[in-house]
Amino acid sequence: MPELPEVETVRRTLAPVLGARVSSVWWSGKNLRLGKPLALPALRKASKGATFEGFRRLGKYLILDLQDRPKSILVHLGMSGRFRHFPPDVSQPAHTHVEWGLEDGRTLRFTDPRRFGNVELVTRGRERDHASLAKLGPDPIDGVVDVAEFQQACSRTKRPIKVALLDQSLVAGVGNIYASEALWQAHIHPKTPACKLSRPRCDRLVQAVRQVLERALMHGGTSLKDFVSADGHAGEHSHYLWVYDREDEACPNSACSGTIRRFVQQQRATFYCPRCQKY
DNA sequence: AGACAAACCTGTCTGC
DNA sequence: TGCAGACAGGTTTGTC
Fold this sequence. Notes:
Elements: H1 4-13, E1 22-27, H2 40-47, E2 52-58, E3 61-66, E4 71-76, E5 82-86, E6 96-102, E7 107-111, E8 118-123, H3 131-134, H4 147-155, H5 161-166, H6 176-185, H7 199-218, E9 261-265, E10 268-272
Antiparallel strand pairs: 1-6, 2-3, 3-4, 4-8, 5-7, 6-7, 9-10
The structure holds a DNA duplex.
């Protein structure tokens, strides 16, 4: 579900709990990602009595820093995860798995029906020691994606560019929706082997990735079903998607009379225009 | 290296 | 109305 724009939207809308102090930590007892239990005692030790000092994002991962504490909280929303703050006395939504009670009565909750998401601890300042964070490529919104490096990375793999984009090492934060969107904007066929991309096309793709993500962020992210920001608002970007979930519709490129097609790559749906996206 | 499938889960939609 | 089956924004792991 949540790709970079959605996670960044959550990060930004967490601002009202900056400086709030944690008074309690609760866990549903249900396993999260890959059936692993939450290390509740460690999470309690890390966060109880501490105040939230800052919220960061690395790719699709959210990092919650606590003042004067060596451990930070690492959150991934998986497909259906939500991370929200609530005013006092709002009862727990279904599928809440982790809840931080704040001293002022508010709560911070991680809710996830499918439990593909995760909450764990990372050592502050050594986040990149975490295997999942170590392999993340440059961030197209926070950082700069160097086109020469991007092309170099592409040249090392024959995988189709759509598949390569989903691997978080090329660039961080692109998921299934925005991979299709960016390739459409760059006029690149999703099956093009990554190693065949010329420098100008890499240039176009890097730009398209950044623009697609920024545009989605501007709309508060895409809500197909589950996604809401940390203050509970759905994103508006689904109304602005060009190709994702638009099979059989006309290509939105006004200079093209093609029809959007859908096929499956790596068990994921890909949408593209066979007329204006070339190998 | 990469294609492919399965695993972790529940909710929702479709077709019969 | 009910039920079975397909499918969903992500990541990891294993096989061939």
